[in-house]
Amino acid sequence: MTQPARDLDPSHSARDLYGVELRRQRQAAGLSLDRLSDIVNYSKTHLHGVETGERLPLPPLSEKLDVAFGTGELFQGLWGTVKREHTPRRFDHCLELEAKASRIQAFGASIIPGLLQTEEYMRAMFTAGEPGMGPKEIDGLVADRLGRQEILRRDCSPDFWWIIGEAALRQVVGGPSAMRGQLAALLPLVHTRHTTIQVSPFEADVCFLMSGTLILLTLPDNSTTMYQEGVGYGEIIDDREAVTRYAREYDLKKACALSPQKSAALIETMLETYESCESPGT
């Protein structure tokens, strides 16, 4: 049975404002949670959690709500505010640049880059990396990252180039099923008009990029800013000399990585490995 909604304060947080507006629009439309669940294809439990401020709205719920209520981009705009409110401060500037970038290049030595992660993969990563967080907080982090992936579906999408270390394909995150889904999600993006994925094999030369995650963000004015992240830290670097150095290392890593075609072949091979990890009955 659904619990009574708690009192929300729209001035307290963007999450509360979102919940208040959702309840107002739903009631004005004369819809029950059950009926709205059928319309937007999200569970009644999730919608109730959003209305009461207990959960973040997982994408693409905001777009579906705007369509259902005829509210233009109201909920999409509120979702943008909610995302900014729940993003760690050290990453805020990176997100601002990411939204404006004309080209995004990233390297992940041992994990799949965030813009490529499936929900199951990222949930396993957050659960392992934030052991003190409860399910609601993890839901918030997952929603934030899924929201970032909206940039992949923009009409004027940036040019994306990812280099993924072979270790990221072999490190089991969330179990074989999660890895199957994750690797399967990579394949359609290996080589398209706007996306390129290369795998850096184990036999490639060692470079200092292997210590963490690197993102190079190039804006329409051709200026490039770098975000570097490791365990417990992250920093934005816009010093021209440092950015030039890292960009050159990235280009060298790109030259030594497998071609998109060979990268796809390796991903497919690893996909078969995970498929054999579980019996047909599981």
Q: What does this molecule look like?
A:
A hairpin with a 2-residue loop joins strand 5 (224-230) and strand 6 (233-237). This protein has 12 helices and 6 strands. The longest helix has 17 residues, at 240-256. It is globular and about 60 Å long. The protein folds into 2 domains: 14-84, Orthogonal Bundle (434 Repressor (Amino-terminal Domain)), CATH 1.10.260.40; 92-275, Endonuclease, Chain A, CATH 3.30.870. 49% of the residues lie in helices and 13% in strands. The two termini are 32 Å apart. It is α/β, with parallel strands linked by helices and 282 residues long.
Element-level helix/strand string = HHHHHHEHHEHHEEEEHH
Stretches with pLDDT under 50, minimum 5 residues:
none
Mean pLDDT score, rounded?
87
N-to-C span: 32 Å
CATH topology of the largest domain, anyone?
Answer: Endonuclease, Chain A
How many helices? The count is: 12
CATH architecture of the largest domain: 2-Layer Sandwich
How helical, in percent, are the residues? 40-55%
Based on secondary structure, the structural category is alpha/beta
Q: Main β-sheet, in a few words?
A: 6 strands, mixed
Please state the overall shape, judged from the principal axes of the Cα atoms.
Answer: globular
Radius of gyration, in angstroms, nearest whole number:
20 Å
Number of domains: 2
User: In percent, how much strand structure appears in the residues?
Assistant: 5-15%
Q: What's the count of strands?
A: 6
Q: Strand order, biggest sheet?
A: 3-2-1-4-5-6
For the record, the CATH class of the largest domain is Alpha Beta
